[in-house]
Amino acid sequence: MNGFIFKKKSPISRLAIPLTAAITFLVYLRSLWSGFVNYDDLGYVVENPMIKALNRDFIVRAFTSEVMGNYHPLTMISYAVDFRIWGLNPAGYHLTNILLHAVNTFLVGALAVKLYNLASLEKERDFYPGILTGLAAALLFGLHPLHVESVAWVSERKDVLSGFFFILSALAYVRYANPEWRRGSGLYYALSLVLFALALLSKSMAVSLPFVLLILDFYPLARLGSWRTVYEKLPFFTLCAASAVSTIWAQTKGRALLTHYPLSERLAVAARSYVFYIYKMVLPVNLIPYYPRPRHPFDYVFLLSISVLSAITLWCLATVRRKKIYTAVWLYYIVTLLPVVGIVQAGYQMAANRYMYIPSIGPFILIGSVCGYLSSRFTEGRAIVMLTLASAIALGILTFRQERFWKDSVALWTRELKYKPVTIAYTGRGYAYYQEGRFDDAVRDYTAVIEGTRGMARDEIELDEVYNKRGLAFEKAGDLDSAIADFNKAVRLNPGNVRALNNMGNAYKKAGSFDLAVSDFNAALAIEPGNAAILFNRGLAYDAAGDEAAALESIRKAAAMGLPAAKEFLKKAAPSGD
Q1: Which runs of E-coded beta strand occur in 138-228?
Q2: CB-hemisphere CA count at 13 Å for 253?
Q3: Which of 56, 321, 459, 519 is the residue whose CA sits 20 to 30 A from 572?
Q4: Among candidates 436, 429, 427, 509, which has minimal Cα distance to 468?
Q5: Between vectors from CA 284 to CA 282 and to CA 285, what angle results, nearest 5°?
Q6: Residue 572 — pLDDT band, cuts 50, 70, 90?
Q7: How many whole angstroms separate alpha carbon 324 and alpha carbon 322?
Q8: pLDDT tens-digit series, residues 187-220
Q9: ω into residue 220 within 30 of 0, thus cis?
């Protein structure tokens, strides 16, 4: 085996991991032809006025505002840069995600090589297995289907961006902490801290990094016995505290933080999630964008999950003296997933593929290390390399297939409904059908929610808004009576639904019932008196009813608020010569 494929200074040994990053980039090129999806992309990019101007005011807003219940100013800045270059062409946003993931793939491979060599006692002899370790870890990370969601979904820019700084921070820390590389160590410590701050500003899930650094001190750096290893993490933990405060503020303001689930239930869901992610790492099939919380968390799956978690923990404890790597990787997995397993619940999902972007790094490096170790102990090195490459090809094929489900909203939610008939999928696909002009299909999906609310409890959806959206679909399909009936149901469920009141007013105006239209517009304006669009719509209703004075008064108010349509109306209505 000596000299097989990876000689110490051969070009192929130097190019192995960069080639893996390039292959990853090519596998994901399919995403360039994907569009935006109505699963957060509208709020983050398409309908987000915040990113439309890359200037000082925007930077201030990015650092002082929450978006979609999250605080990630650096991610928003990256969107603003994309908008400056690409406008709303989704290919540009996808390209940025793909490039970041390809770079992260290279960084994971580089980190795996460094950690393997740190753990090895025979540095010179271990060059080949170290490279194989990095190659296997990079292939797994770059091509695993679990990561498609983080790469092919524009809204998950925060995953690939935060992951980039997270891995770089870990690399800088390893360079600082390695006793053989003490030159310039203070600089690398400061660099690691700065990179950690950037990771937090991209996505708060990076909050686990200080614990990861302590795990690295345990193994393979073997420097955990000194109090210095704890003291030097204090600046990192200070950043963690600041990030936790900003995250809770953002999620509370965005009403994303859920507190009504009992702690016992949240712990049960967390146990199930840990095992669920292991299962999906081993068998990455039937991947969907939304895994709903179980209605009965304390069932046989919970008992099985507890058994699996206990067995792995006991194995790690039994082998910790001989093989610290198992304990280190298990701790890494537990710690990095902890912020998103549901103990602090944000959203109604039990799990999400995107949450494995950073936690998967540890297990993948472990698998790579096993490949490297076996190649150094057995003569069948060629077989190990071939097996690694075959596994990478299989994962690449699965990833390539998984990408097609993110090409548009209809494909995404149809995929979800194939396995989980949840209301978020029906409403998401219904809205996509509406945007495509397929109004009968939209009505059908909204009706499925209204009649069944399948897969979710009713308190997890705004049923009045579903009636409102179905009413719009009925109206576009030409069924005004059904549209008005749905708008009425929406208002009965939620008298403060301004959108439904406005839509009902428009429907009555279209039906020729101008008095009823004005009444609905007045009801909406009683709730939002400064809504220029509703003032304009009321003016149009007055105008259609023949009340020119009331029409002009209402439309002039809308024009004074800056509504372009109102200004255009007044311009056309002005007598010639004025």
Answers
A1: none
A2: 14
A3: 519
A4: 427
A5: 135
A6: confident
A7: 6
A8: 999 999 999 999 999 999 999 999 999 999 999 9
A9: yes
